[in-house]
Amino acid sequence: MFLNFIQWNPSPEIFTIPGINWPVRWYGLMWALAFIASHFYMNRIYKKEGRTEKDLDVLTLYIILGTVLGARLGHCLFYDPAYYLSHPIDILKVYEGGLASHGGAIGIITGMVLYCRKTKESYLWLFDRLMVVVPLAAFFIRFGNLMNSEIIGTTTNVPWAFIFSSVDNLPRHPSQLYEGIFCLFLFFLFYWLWKPVRTGTGGNKRNDFGPGFMFGLLCVLLFTERFFDEFVKENQEAFEKGMVLNMGQLLSIPFVIVGIYMMWRSIKIKKTITETPQ
C-alpha cells in the first residue's frame, strides 16, 4: 500500500565541520561517491583486461576535470548564456550550483579523447568500458539532486508523489528518482554485458559486440529515458516555457542519433570481421 504522498524535506547539509564551520553537503558527498565507485569498477575492468593502475589514475584525472568543467560550462552556455557571457567570472562559482548533465557527457567524451591521444589507447575500447560506470555515477548525482530537492517534477496525484516542502506543498513527480533508478538499472545491465563469462562457457559477452556498440547503446537508452523524463520535470529556466521541446530534450536528441549510428557502425564492423577469412 502506497503512502498518501511522501513529505520530503531533508537538510542539504549532513553536518558542519567543527572549528572551521564548513558544511558537508549531500550533493558534494554524492559527487565524491560517484567518482570513488566509478574508479573502483574501472579498476576491475583495467586489471581484467591487462591495463595498469597508473593508466587508470591518469584516466581518472581526465574524467574528473572533463566532467566538472563540461557540466559547469554546459549549464552556463545551454541554459543562461547571456548572463554568463556578460559575467564570465561567475562561471567559476561552481559552489553556487548549476551543473548540466549533457555538458558533463560532452566533457567526459572530450576527456576520453584527450586521454586516448596521450596514451594511444583505442578510443572505442575505452568508450565501451567507461559506459559501464557512467550510469553508476549518474545514479549518485541524481540522488544528490533529490537530497537538494532540486530538478523537481511536475505536479501529479500518483500515490508515490513527493511533496518537496522546501519548494511548495504540491505533490510532484520525483523525477530525480526516476532517472536515478533507471541509471542504476543501466549500470547492472552494462556490467553484465562487460563481465567475463566463466571459463569454459564460451568466452566473453562483450566480444559478441563490435567496437563502439556499448557506447552507442548507452547513448540511446540513457538519453531516450532523459527525453521522456523531461515530460514530468519542471523546466529549469524561464525561457523553456512555451517551447514544444525543452532544452533537456533538444540536447538529448543528438546523443540518441549518435548512439544509433555507433550501434549500426559496430554491427557492420563485427559482420566484416566475422566474414573475413581467417
Describe what you observe in this structure.
It is a single chain. Helix 1 packs across helix 2, helix 7 (175-194) runs antiparallel to helix 8 (213-229) and helix 8 packs antiparallel against helix 9 (247-275). The protein has 278 residues and is mainly alpha-helical. The chain has one domain. The chain is built from nine helices and five strands; from the N terminus they run βββααααααββααα.
Total domain count:
1
Number of helices: 9
Largest beta-sheet details: 3 strands, mixed
- Name the shape in a single word: globular
Number of strands: 5
Q: Sketch the topology as an H/E string, one letter per element.
A: EEEHHHHHHEEHHH
Q: Helix content range of the residues, please?
A: 55-70%
Q: Based on helices, strands and strand pairing, what is the structural class?
A: mainly alpha
- N- and C-termini, Cα separation: 60 Å
Strand order of the biggest β-sheet: 1-4-5
Tell me the Rg in angstroms. Answer: 20 Å
What share of the residues does DSSP label as strand, in percent?
5-15%
Mean pLDDT: 88
Q: Give unreliable regions as ranges.
A: none
